[in-house]
UniProtKB/TrEMBL annotation:
Domain of life: Bacteria
UniProt feature coiled coil, ranges: none
Protein name: Aldose 1-epimerase family protein
InterPro entries: DUF4432 (IPR027839), Gal_mutarotase_sf_dom (IPR011013), GH-type_carb-bd (IPR014718)
Xref: Pfam families: DUF4432
Record lineage: Bacteria, Bacillati, Actinomycetota, Actinomycetes, Propionibacteriales
């Protein structure tokens, strides 16, 4: 066995099997039925109990995610819907909700949070004085160019499962932003490393907003599951919090007609400059943690969707406060990227056992 006495070494796997995938690996498949037909998927199996799927045609977001066969990533009623079915401007900009499912749904690249009209005169195209955004922007429904994937032995006892892709959000007389995404997991491991780089490939100054909608569902989310975070104070909450009063620290059973409760929490960073938030299910002896750079993602939202039939809790690191696009432009907090300028986001999603 390898030095940690749990994961086979490269030699040991070779002695027992013809390829690394006998223990763990990455496999490319294509969904072939229903609303997801045609979506390219990369299946990651670490051999350490972690299984997850990367939706290549959904901006390389993470769909299914399981630890020891227990579903962690939210499976919403929409399923994993092909981006060709997406209509960005439908339902007054709320059509994003028709393809919202899975562990990670990315929001951006030039807009997050609720939609509306904002100034577009910086693009210098007279017919386009404003641009209208829908909920959480466009990026989640753009297919990626798959750069590569596979299993790399970086040492005799250390193999990295990986995938890389590039998502281009562009239009004529508007934004030209590129998301370069790399996803890694160690053979035998129980964490996902997500590294995103957003670049302005265009020549106009372009707004940039970014958010991860990290969604956890049943059966990991269950009666008694706890939300764990170092909250210094809560900056904002929806009116539904006072109206319903559902606990946002310990969760109970799904409720009929529940109205979403959303909170913006100001988190304390740890000594490494990271924000760490998570959920713990004591009955299952399992936990899930989101670990992000506090400088890159200074804001954080907690989303409670405790409604029957769509039960989920969302952990949302964000570049901007809940007031959104127009407010960020007014108060000067909007990020403007010049040509060639980039922002990098290095995040970790940890799955673990408490027992």
């Amino acid at each position: 066995m390898s030095s940690n006495d749990t994961v086979p070494s490269r030699l040991e796997i070779a002695r027992h099997a013809g390829e690394t995938s006998a223990y763990g690996g990455v496999r490319s498949v294509v969904l072939d039925d229903g609303a997801g037909r045609g979506i390219r998927v990369l299946e990651f199996r670490t051999g350490g109990g972690l299984y997850f799927e990367v939706l290549v045609d959904r901006a390389m977001d993470i769909g299914v995610a399981e630890l020891d066969g227990i579903t962690v990533g939210w499976r919403s009623p929409t399923g994993f819907r092909h981006p060709g079915l997406h209509e960005h401007a439908d339902e007054e900009g709320l059509s994003w909700l028709r393809s919202m499912s899975g562990l990670v749904v990315t929001a951006g690249l030039d807009h997050t949070l609720f939609g509306g009209d904002v100034d577009a005169t910086h693009y210098r195209y007279p017919p386009k004085q404003t641009v209208r955004h829908g909920l959480h922007g466009r990026v989640a429904n753009i297919p990626a160019r798959l750069v590569g994937y596979g299993e790399d032995w970086v040492a005799e006892d250390h193999c990295v499962l990986w995938a890389e892709g590039e998502v281009v959000q562009a239009t004529n007389f508007g934004e030209h932003l590129v998301l370069r995404r790399r996803i890694e997991a160690d053979l035998g491991g129980t964490e996902i490393r997500l590294t995103d780089t957003v670049i302005n490939a265009g020549f106009d100054p372009t707004p940039h907003m970014f958010l991860y909608h990290v969604n956890v569902g049943w059966p990991f989310l269950d009666e008694g599951t706890r939300f764990v975070a170092d909250i210094e104070r809560t900056l904002w909450q929806t009116d539904s919090v006072a109206e319903q009063g559902a606990d946002h620290l310990v969760f109970h059973q799904p409720q009929p007609g529940f109205v979403e409760q959303v909170y913006e929490h100001h988190l304390a960073a740890d000594p490494d400059g990271r924000h760490r938030v998570g959920l713990v299910n004591p009955a299952l002896g399992r936990y899930f943690e989101v670990d992000v750079d506090a400088t890159a993602f200074p804001c954080f939202f907690e989303w409670l969707n405790l409604r029957e039939g769509a039960w989920a809790v969302g952990l949302e690191p964000s570049t901007h406060h809940v007031a959104g696009d127009a407010a960020a432009r007014e108060d000067g907090s909007m990020i403007w990227l010049e040509h060639g300028e980039e922002r990098r986001y290095a995040s970790v999603f940890r799955f673990g056992r408490t027992g």
